[in-house]
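Anyone up for a design puzzle?
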């Protein structure tokens, strides 16, 4: 059985690493004819060293067999260019299955191409729904799930979403959250890291030791923002920056790994210098997986608009202010036992919840099947599907 899996952007890399290890483990005890043949395609949506290659190296992902070199562009440009290049690959390699992960433009583009080429499609992280069609990721999820033959879901609400959309029961497999496989696999290495060294090696500007001493382990306010709803409007971004500099940074060291898009916007809106001049704000390059996990472990709280970080905060118990009005990951919310609270982008709301979470304890929580063994269940489901027999449903 020949499997071709696809990655394109940063959040895909931690989802594919455990899957590749599980394919290898499956093959370890099998003769050639029973072994899985695997090819990895990188579309190149993310291409900076720090957004892409660094993750391959630290997560032990082998070099992609095929690199499409798509790069930046509008959504239509990214999706269109990916489909054109990916079609050539599918026609040349004729896989039995195409495996896509997550919800980025590469996921959607390759799903459409897979089905137009009549190749079976499996989606890892199926069924997440924010019901917010202003998010490009939601469109990518809907298209991908509508086309997938095997929908591998991370939690029960996601399976229920698919049922409600009329997906046949036998195509839905609850396998758990593959991101947590990576977290558990990398955790021992990350536990040995020192958070001040993480800050130092990723800093964007010079740091003297007196400043670095302020970055006290366990007391960090870690910030990550990249969504257009938070970073594309000057007045809004300016209010957020003022809140971080004038309020949060007076109490806690603020550590902010910068997405390239956010840095561009801060510079364009004249906000970069305000941040850089604040002695208790630490601006970092986009950080690697291990370094981000270390920052999370040493966070007093997280302020983020990332989906993956909500999940990692849930398992680590880091109080998380999610700067969005909705989430496709409800199991991570406080009302469902998780660590995250939706605060939108209204500063009054963010301030109130910020005050509240400073009083909250770290409460790690592990939703069902977030046990570090999701990738093995995925390989089993693919093999069972290929053999045309049922695997037990959850
Ligand atoms: C993408 C994903 C989003 C994910 C995020 C994580 C989609 C629709 N969005 O958003 O789900 O949470 O990645 O990072 O696929 N850029 C660089 N170097 C890079 C990559 C991007 O400089 O390696 C800059 C480019 O100017 C680009 C901008 O960042 O235009 C945005 O990149 P893009 O891939 O369009 O989307 P993200 O905002 O990163």
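Challenge accepted. My sequence:
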């Amino acid at each position: 059985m020949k499997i071709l899996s696809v990655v394109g952007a940063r959040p895909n890399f931690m989802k594919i690493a455990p899957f590749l290890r599980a394919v290898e483990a499956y093959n370890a005890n099998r003769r050639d004819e029973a072994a899985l043949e695997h090819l990895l395609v990188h579309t190149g949506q993310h291409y900076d060293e720090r957004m892409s290659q660094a993750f391959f190296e630290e997560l032990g992902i082998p070099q992609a067999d095929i690199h499409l070199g798509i790069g930046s562009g509008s959504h239509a440009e990214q999706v269109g260019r990916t489909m054109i290049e990916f079609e050539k690959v599918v026609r040349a390699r004729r896989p039995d299955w195409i495996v896509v992960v997550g919800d980025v433009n590469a996921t959607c583009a390759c799903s459409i191409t897979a089905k137009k080429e009549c190749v079976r499609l499996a989606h890892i992280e199926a069924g997440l729904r924010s019901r917010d069609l202003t998010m490009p990721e939601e469109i990518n999820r809907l298209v991908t799930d509508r086309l997938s033959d095997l929908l591998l879901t991370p939690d029960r609400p996601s399976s229920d979403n698919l049922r409600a959309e009329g997906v046949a029961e036998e195509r839905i497999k609850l396998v758990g959250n593959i991101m947590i496989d990576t977290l558990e696999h990398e955790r021992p290495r990350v536990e040995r890291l020192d958070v001040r060294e993480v800050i130092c090696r990723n800093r964007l500007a010079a740091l003297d030791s007196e400043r670095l001493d302020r970055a006290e382990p366990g007391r960090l306010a870690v910030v990550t923002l990249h969504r257009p709803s938070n970073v594309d409007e000057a007045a809004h971004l300016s209010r957020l920056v003022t809140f971080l500099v004038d309020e949060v940074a007076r109490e806690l060291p603020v550590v902010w790994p910068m997405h390239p898009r956010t840095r561009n916007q801060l510079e364009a809106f004249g906000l970069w210098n305000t941040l850089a001049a604040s002695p208790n704000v630490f601006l970092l390059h986009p950080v690697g997986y291990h370094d981000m996990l270390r920052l999370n472990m040493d966070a007093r709280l997280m302020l983020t608009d990332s989906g993956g970080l909500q999940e990692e905060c849930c398992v680590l118990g880091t109080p998380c202010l999610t700067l969005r009005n909705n989430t496709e990951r409800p199991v991570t919310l406080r009302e469902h036992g998780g660590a995250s609270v939706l605060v939108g982008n209204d500063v009054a709301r963010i301030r109130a919840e910020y005050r509240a979470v400073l009083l909250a304890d770290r409460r790690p929580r592990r939703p069902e099947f977030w046990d570090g063994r999701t990738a093995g269940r995925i390989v089993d489901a693919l093999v069972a599907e290929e053999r045309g027999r049922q695997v037990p449903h959850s």
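A detail worth pointing out: The chain has two domains: 2-177+370-390, 194-358.
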